[in-house]
Amino acid sequence: MIDIISFLPAKRKQSNSGWVSFNGPCCIHNGESVDRRQRGGFKGSIEGWSYHCFNCNFTASFILGRNLSIKARKFLSWLNVPAEEIDRIQLESLRHRSIEGMIDDRQRTADAILGIHFEERDMGGVEFVTPEHTDIWNYLRRRQAPIDYPYMISSTKGARTGVIIPFTYNNTLVGSTVRFLDDRKPVWINYFQPGYVFGTDLQQQDWQYVIVTEGIFDALSIDGLALMHNTVSDAQARLIRNIGKEIIVVPDQDIAGMELVDRAVELNWAVSIPDWPDGIKDVNDAVIKLGKIATLITILQSKETSRIKIELRKRQLVKRLRN
């Protein structure tokens, strides 16, 4: 397989998350002016690559074992990849249709059977967060958020400063949320589709557990899932079960969080309500004060599957909250 990176423009920069930014070669082919602000974003892996231009919104991707799409061919030609090399990529990809490719096909089939489908979304006018975006970078560090996630920032002049967290499913962009850094309301603006659960692409094949939380930063700080509210819809439950791991629900330690406990019991999922020190309300608070490893240990040590024990722990917490 050819090294696509070698065909990217010489003037480029790479973020900690692995995205390479450069002037998008696609803009002049899509009715936009020449990109001079490095709005093209490329990320490669051993399985393929993806590209998104935040100026003209052109997207293209390629996964080893699949056909080169028309958009992928266009992108490669705009990078001046020779036509014979493009054909070679296609042939080599078809030769590599392997067990991994068949597993991926089965996953898509299972999703279709379960009714799990999210439309791909475009995001224009944004750029990736780097240490140069001091306010946002420091905020993410304070929240103990992993720095290798592809956070974005709106580049529109006069807009409120905020960090944009892309939502993906099977590594496809399907939505986003923005967390503003000022004290004005709304603090969050979400753009997600019904049934979506954040963090599915963070899960690893060899993990035993999947930890379900309420908030985005809860999930990011421990590589878990985020429901983005204090209950679980039927569609979200199907998606979470489809991951195939033992499920542990960790609610926020407030009155509203107890609704999530009741729903988890209804679904026969394990619940963890750790006895954290005062001042810790949720998973992200715990990671900030205790660290990631210590937080995960407290979650696993407090895991309960008995309905009676879960109800008892819930009553103890509610009593403490009301005193």
How would you portray this structure in words?
The protein is of the alpha+beta class and 323 residues long. It has 3 domains: 4-97, no CATH class; 119-192; 197-323, Dna Topoisomerase Vi A Subunit, Chain: A, domain 2 (3-Layer(aba) Sandwich), CATH 3.40.1360. It is 33% helix and 20% strand. The protein contains 10 helices and 15 strands. It has helices at 70-78, 83-95, 99-114, 134-142, 216-222, 234-242, 257-266, 283-290, 292-301, 307-322, and strands at residues 12-14, 20-22, 40-45, 48-53, 59-63, 126-128, 152-154, 162-169, 172-180, 188-191, 209-213, 225-226, 246-249, 270-272, 303-304. The strands form 3 sheets. A 5-stranded antiparallel β-sheet has the order 1-2-3-4-5. A 5-stranded antiparallel β-sheet has the order 6-7-8-9-10, with no helix packed on it. A hairpin with a 7-residue loop joins strand 9 (172-180) and strand 10. Helix 5 (216-222) packs across helix 8 and helix 8 crosses helix 9 (292-301). It is globular and about 70 Å long. The mean pLDDT is 87.
Summarize the structure.
With 323 residues, the protein is of the alpha+beta class. Helices cover 33% and strands 20% of the residues. It folds into three domains: 4-97, no CATH class; 119-192; 197-323, Dna Topoisomerase Vi A Subunit, Chain: A, domain 2 (3-Layer(aba) Sandwich).
- SS-based structural class? alpha+beta
Question: Could you estimate the helical fraction of the residues in percent?
Answer: 25-40%
Strand order of the largest sheet: 1-2-3-4-5
What's the domain count? Answer: 3
- CATH domain class name of the largest domain: Alpha Beta
Distance between the termini: 64 Å
From the coordinates shown, what is the CATH architecture of the largest domain? 3-Layer(aba) Sandwich
Number of helices, where a helix is a run of at least 4 consecutive DSSP H or I residues? 10
Report low-confidence residues grouped into runs of 5 or more.
Answer: none
How big is the Rg?
22 Å
CATH topology of the largest domain: Dna Topoisomerase Vi A Subunit, Chain: A, domain 2
Largest sheet data: 5 strands, antiparallel
Percentage of residues in strands: 15-25%
